[in-house]
Amino acid sequence: MSGGLSGPAFGLLADLLKSRSGLVIGPDKLYLLETRLGPILRREGMRDLAALAARLGSPAAEKLAQEVVEAMTTNESLFFRDTKPFQHFRTQVLPRLHEARPAGAPLRVWSAAASTGQEAYSLAMILTDCQALLGQRKVEILGTDIAREPLARAREGLYSQFEVQRGLPVQMLMKHFCKEADGWRLSAALRAAVEFREWNLLADLRPLGMFDVVFCRNVLLYFDQPTKTRVLEAIARQMAPDGVLYLGGAETVLGLTDRLRPLAEQQGAYATSAGAQSRSPNHEIEAPSPAAAAGVISPGALSPGLKSRHGSQQEASTWPAPTGSRSFPVMASARRQYRSHSRYSTPPLPGSTSG
To answer: Which of 11, 146, 203, 313 sits most deeply, having the most CB atoms within 10 A of its CB?
Structure first.
């Protein structure tokens, strides 16, 4: 073991990371520990990783342990990352879920491992463009992450020029952001439409409530197989019977859980097993027209009152809209399953969350 780090000291660091974040670090990744934990070593006046491991063995090192976990997590996030999952959410999943739900029932969307918020805010932007479809239906967006600093940035909604150039259409930049000295600030309305909470995917997910759509993309690839299974099954238990899960392009549920099944029409999208089996080709709804997809925003339709800072009348969105008479299958029993699913009511989130 290089850098003066003994086997037991490395094991302590590796065990801490795996138990708290699911991150698996082997001896071949020692350079990663040295690179990412270097700033902590310098700030604390520690000579090397062995000194850090010794400090972490103290019961009084909880704050330091949290900082170590945060420093080792990957916080890469882009607006509309990979594009296609967001198109699928907009053109197929959102209309289908809206049709399946009884009037007055909210839709709940979860951006797991939300990092600095680009994914959750991308979903909020899509929803502003779909108000003609949704009408007065409330939509709740929750973004969670294990790391506190990225979540603080997400709540601020302030992004650099480099960040807004990565995946964000210029029309959406002009519509939803204001230029400031330090970058681009997201509108107050969109910031209010997303709730960010500190939460660990390895913790009990039940207090978060049930969700219609879950984005958990490019997270599982850092876990070992047992942890992937554990997380996928926990997420599946928090999904509505006809809910949809989006994973990253290099991730899959195959060989990990039988609670989820791939959706044929979109790579990386998965339905609960019960929901996938109940799909019926005899139940369809038409795609919204391009005009309807752009539509007019109805003030207050998005929780908690998402509307444009330019007023309720919206310009047509440049986001790809459905064309022709394409239609999508609806789960025949979705509405019945939804009404009978006693756990769907959302419990209040506790004030203190898992790290």
So the answer is: 146
Which residue type occupies 120?
A: A
**Could you tell me the fold of the domain covering 84-285+322-342?**
Rossmann fold (3.40.50)
- The DSSP string of 127-140 is HHHTHHHHTT--EE
Residue-wise pLDDT for 166-195, tens only, equals 999 999 999 999 999 999 999 999 999 999
Q: How far apart are CA 23 and CA 118, in angstroms?
A: 22
Determine contact, residues 183/160, Cβ cutoff 8 Å. yes
Model's pTM, two decimal places?
0.73
CATH fold of 7-72, please?
Chemotaxis Receptor Methyltransferase Cher; domain 1 (1.10.155)
Q: First-to-last CA distance in the chain?
A: 30
Which pLDDT band holds residue 6 (cuts at 50, 70, 90)?
A: confident
Tell me the C-alpha to C-alpha distance, in Å, between residue 82 and each of 14, 173, 185, 218, 261. Answer: 31, 18, 23, 11, 21
More confident residue, 9 or 276: 9
**Domains of the chain by residue range:** 7-72, 84-285+322-342
